[in-house]
Amino acid sequence: MATRSTIMDTNSFRSDAGGELPWPTAQLVRRRERVLGPSYRLFYRRPVHLVRGEGAHLYDADGLQYLDVYNNVASVGHCHPRVVAAIAEQAAALNTHTRYLHDRVVQYSEDLLATMPDEIDQVMFMCTGSEANDLAVRVAQAATGGTGVIVSAEAYHGNSALTSQMSPALGTAQRLGLEVRTVPVPDPLRTGTDDPGAWFAARMAEAVADLERHGVKVAAFVADSIFSSDGVFPDPVGYLAPAVDVVRRAGGVFVADEVQPGFGRTGSEFWGFARHGVVPDLVTTGKPMGNGIPVSAMAARSDVLAAFGEQIPYFNTFGGNPVSIAAAQAVLAVIAEERLQERAARTGARFLDELRTLTADHPLIGDVRGVGLYIGVDVVTDRVSMAPSTQVALDLVEALRDRRVLTSVCGAGGNVLKLRPPLVFSDDDVDWFCAAFADALDDVLVPDRP
């Protein structure tokens, strides 16, 4: 029997699970199930019908207000007026593709590259992070002559035919590619090492060696630098660098998937990879780039991009269209003008401290870890074995949902609460979450529960 997807199925609604839904919700669920494909998922045992958003808050069809502690897509806040205005203005003027000249597309490219290391000097645009990672792997293969790809053990890098085969978080029903290898991430609760960098580099060397034993040269190591799907492992700072060195010595390149940690979310750096002191060969980004408008990018060292670009013309009809680029430009402006990176650092540090204080005496919370506005709460059966407790984690998510606080889970055991609110998350929002979480803990965390 196939293992379910940790990121798609663990916290999903199931119509056959029993339980009464309010009549309007039940009707909408039935209509949805009738017309949408069965691969789609809904969050929560009682799905939420949302109709409006503002900042870090969402509102349902009954006018009830929710706290969004999950949505990195609306990175600068739901329906930010600056982004909305930029979209409307450009849509009223022109929307076309990158085979015509357009100053806005070039200007944004210059502005985006200015946030990256000097070595990253060219960019290409798509609509989704899946497309960006798909292209990055093709570029890596052209540049290196290799075909092997290494990812973390619970990675998610997309849903195209290529990227789904390097996304173990989709579950075992989605087979990994024959030339894909996975590496575990150093987990402070369970790895048992005093040197995570050396430990991770050793696992990387084993993956490279296994590819080579099968006659496969490594092309790329693709990683989200906070390993969000694996359970949120951002620290210690720098532990990623030795593993990247292993890949480069084997002739491969490093692809930094910045869909999760990018655009200031870590607080300390604009891009997650910078915390580890590495300069990638390729950088991909997606969801938070346009605050909900479909736009993504693959940025690259020009020498790495050259082989692919000289052989294969690339065109994406909607990638880099002026309306999406207007949204992306507005996001950059808002991050800078509202000092959201600094806010992520300040608010995130307080959020982390409050959560650690709140959970210090709870025997089923093994760890609270994170950086900036990306935090994982590791729910365990006990603090001796540190075994994951999926059911308690899910009960906590549902208890929070009942208190109109929205989040979900990640990690191989589906036991880590994933807290990644919009960057406009405030001190009042921290207080709201912590009050709801304390109440949920009292309801759910019974020490002898399996």
UniProtKB/TrEMBL annotation:
Protein name in the entry: Aspartate aminotransferase family protein
Transmembrane segments: none
Species of provenance: Cellulomonas soli
Record-linked InterPro entries: Aminotrans_3, Aminotrans_3_PPA_site, PyrdxlP-dep_Trfase, PyrdxlP-dep_Trfase_major, PyrdxlP-dep_Trfase_small
Pfam families: Aminotran_3
Cited Gene3D superfamilies: Aspartate Aminotransferase, domain 1, Type I PLP-dependent aspartate aminotransferase-like (Major domain)
Phylogenetic lineage: Bacteria, Bacillati, Actinomycetota, Actinomycetes, Micrococcales
Keyword Transcription regulation listed: no
Keywords per UniProt: Aminotransferase, Pyridoxal phosphate, Transferase
Presence of keyword DNA damage: no
Molecular function terms, GO-annotated: pyridoxal phosphate binding; transaminase activity
Family: Belongs to the class-III pyridoxal-phosphate-dependent aminotransferase family.
CDD domains on file: OAT_like
